[in-house]
Amino acid sequence: MAKLTKPKTTSKTKKQAPKTPAKTPAKTPAKTPAKTPAKISLAKNTESKSIKEKRAEFKALATKIKEYNKAQKDQKNPSNPTPSTPSPKPSRPLFESLFIIILLALLLLWLGSAFYRAYKPKPQILQGQIAAREYSVSSKLPGRIENLHVKKGDMIKKGQLIYQIQSPELDAKYTQAKAGYEIAKAMNEETHAGSRKESITSTEDVWRSAQAMSDLAHKTYERIEELYKSGVVSLQRRDEALAAYKSAKHNENAAYQQYQIALAGAREGAKKASSERQVVAQGQVDEVEAFLQDAYAYAPISGEVSNVLLHNGELSPSGFPVVMVVDMDDIWVRLPVSEQYLSRFAKGSIFKAYIPALKVYAKFKVSYISAMGEFATWKATNATRGYDMKTYEIEAHPISKIKNLRSGMSVLVKLD
Q1: What burial class does residue 255 get, using C-beta atoms within 10 Å of its C-beta: 0-12 exposed, 13-18 middle, 19+ buried?
Q2: What is the pLDDT of residues 68-119, one digit of tens each?
Q3: Residues 4-15: pLDDT tens digits?
Q4: What is the DSSP track for 112-161?
């Protein structure tokens, strides 16, 4: 029952609340602040106001604010006093509505462009790399590097001396080969020159002596034969004379053959063998000389030194690349292309590419397409569609010479 009586008292206060400010002066609220029950009843009265009363209060407050603002404007601009009657309001709401419409239109335009850029298919960009022909300067001769004449970044000409190999062992081999050649040459000359004059004269004298003994034995035999026929000498004596004659004749023939040998010199086979030995010795000398020539390393092409791997005093094995040279005239681009775009890069076709390092566009002509594809950029098969995408490497040379183009620069190809 106590809870039901409280709302009745509040309802009475609601009816009496609007009457009190009309009868009592404005100072009456200041007399009752010390009493606590009056504060509680005032809070309850303000909370229980209806929505219509609140709206009316807000409208009244707004009109007062507008009047205050107008009065401030009139004070600032006394030359253009505003009339006491309120100005018509239709112009301001129209301006505000137009502003809102324009703002909404701009917002819709921005949203449309943002969605278009977001869902617009982006162009495919392929990235390649500039490559150049690289040569290595090396020597077949092992030894220590001596007199290195270049460094990184130097521009060299074809045939220019790059470095030298020092090898004492090779110098000793060259001395041996040269001496062996001189020996073979002397023996060959001796063989082809024949016997000495003294030997020829000596053999001729022996032959002449044997010829004289043969003539004497022949005459002696003829005399003994006549005496035998006359019965003066015996048959034994005749046979002895005949045997002496035949022996002298054989000695004469043997001496004559020795004389002919001395005149003719060595046989043809011996002469040929001696000549071949000299050729072999000359080949050994040429081989060592070739090694000596290879001790001097020259530039195979004109280009730029990209790297120096060994320096003066270091030991270089046979065939080791001491200096690397890049041919700046033989340059191309290596571009990996997925097989779905491979039809655009047929052999002999021309495409345009952008070089970010130089900030220029250049045209390239396809000169090579790899025979087999690789899974360098592999894309797995989709369950619904698609297939394994392979990548092919192509090589393309620039149509015209590009200034300051260097190996390793990136190249971008845009596919619309």
Answers
A1: buried
A2: 667 766 665 655 544 444 545 445 667 777 888 888 888 888 888 887 777 7
A3: 333 443 333 333
A4: HHHHHHHHSPPPEEEEEEEEEEEEEE--SS-EEEE-----TT-EE-TT-E
Task: Report the candidate in 36, 309, 9, 262 with the shortest Cα–Cα distance to residue 150.
Answer: 309
Q: Are 150 and 156 in contact (CB under 8 A)?
A: yes
In the block, residue with structure tokens 């130089």: 358
Residue among 390, 291, 413 at smallest CA distance from 339: 390
Residue the block writes with tokens 């040429």 = 286
Distances from the Cα of 400 to the Cαs of 227, 259, 332, 381, in angstroms? 119, 84, 11, 41
d(C-alpha 80, C-alpha 198), whole Å: 156
A 10 A CB-CB count for 415 gives 13
Report the distance separating Cα 363 and Cα 342, nearest Å.
Answer: 18
